[in-house]
Design a protein that fits this description.
Helix content: 40-55%
Distance between the termini: 15 Å
Radius of gyration: 19 Å
Oligomer: single chain
Number of strands: 11
Length: about 300
């Protein structure tokens, strides 16, 4: 990965650091962010749906999460040092302890066969899957080495080398159907706009057949993928406005990102965050200002 860049915020009593690195994995990984916080008041964080898979190597205790706030706080919460998350339609709830650190990668869903050893469609049964269940024992060894490394540059280099070796070992046997690859690229070019009929005609499949093969590969249908992409761009526009110190114009964001109207954008926010846009901003404002919502769009292939 390219040289990491860091943003750090130090309000009284706490430290937050987010370090980004440009992936060097041929589009298999869309973004890579190192995170570290200390002195934080324990809280509950919403891991939002996106068009990318999530891979987290925690280097300061396990990630504790659930599909509801109650599960995240309960005895049946998922606790794992390595997180693999598929494409999902609801937020994941993650406990934020007093201190935490790790590396979070946004993995292209069509890279799942090469990097994870399975199509992304096999990750839909659980919101979060322990990484060693997917990646095997060698992932645990990589995690131990990450915990021993002293700099972000060394950590990113270790993860990059590990994923490059997995991709090389998978070879051509991990290729996805060309119709699915082109369908995803078409949706990305249109930022989630367009119709299923138009997409199906573009890849020369019937809408039903396209939905079947697309869902088998990614875990969601083309319409759901389109909504996730549209929401990703809308959320990115909101985050950029806040980062620049401006109140976001939600009506304008809705129009520019392909929503019918402001209410349509609000409905998607409520589905994907369980909050209104203003409620989500109020909850996440400090993380946004510290650089914690870098979503990797600048690295999208």
């Amino acid at each position: 990965m390219g040289a990491p860049t860091s943003r750090e915020s130090e309000p009284p009593g706490d430290v937050r650091e987010f370090v980004t690195a440009a992936p060097r994995l041929d589009g298999l990984v869309v973004s890579a962010v190192g995170y570290r916080s200390t002195g934080m008041r324990p809280a509950l964080h919403r891991g939002l749906p996106s068009p990318y898979l999530t891979l987290i190597f925690s280097i300061d205790g396990p990630v504790v999460s659930g599909s509801t706030p109650e599960q995240a706080h309960g005895t049946d919460a998922v606790r794992t040092d390595i997180v693999v998350g598929g494409l999902h339609q609801r937020p994941a709830y993650v406990l934020q302890p007093e201190h935490e650190a790790g590396i979070q990668l946004a993995v292209h869903p069509l890279a799942a066969r090469r990097l994870l050893g399975m199509p992304a469609g096999e990750l839909t049964d659980r919101l979060v899957t322990p990484g060693t269940d997917v990646l095997g024992r060698d992932a645990g060894e990589i995690h131990e080495r990450l915990c021993a490394e002293g700099t972000w540059h060394e950590r990113f280099a270790l993860v990059t080398d590990y994923l490059q070796r997995r991709a090389a070992a998978a070879g051509r046997t991990a290729d996805v159907r060309p119709e699915v690859a082109e369908a995803w690229a078409w949706l990305a070019r249109h930022r989630g706009a367009g119709t299923l009929d138009g997409l199906a005609a573009h890849v020369a499949l019937s809408p039903r057949r396209l939905t079947t093969v697309f869902r088998a590969e990614t875990g969601i249908g083309p319409k759901q993928a389109a909504r996730l992409m549209r929401f990703q761009h809308a959320r990115g526009a909101v985050v950029r406005a806040v980062t620049a110190g401006h109140p976001p114009d939600l009506a304008r964001v809705a129009a520019e990102c392909g929503y019918y109207d402001h209410s349509h954008l609000v409905r998607d926010f409520r589905q994907y965050t369980d909050l209104s846009p203003t409620g989500w901003l109020a909850e996440e404002c400090r993380n946004i200002q510290a650089g914690g919502h870098l979503n990797g769009e600048e690295y999208e292939p």
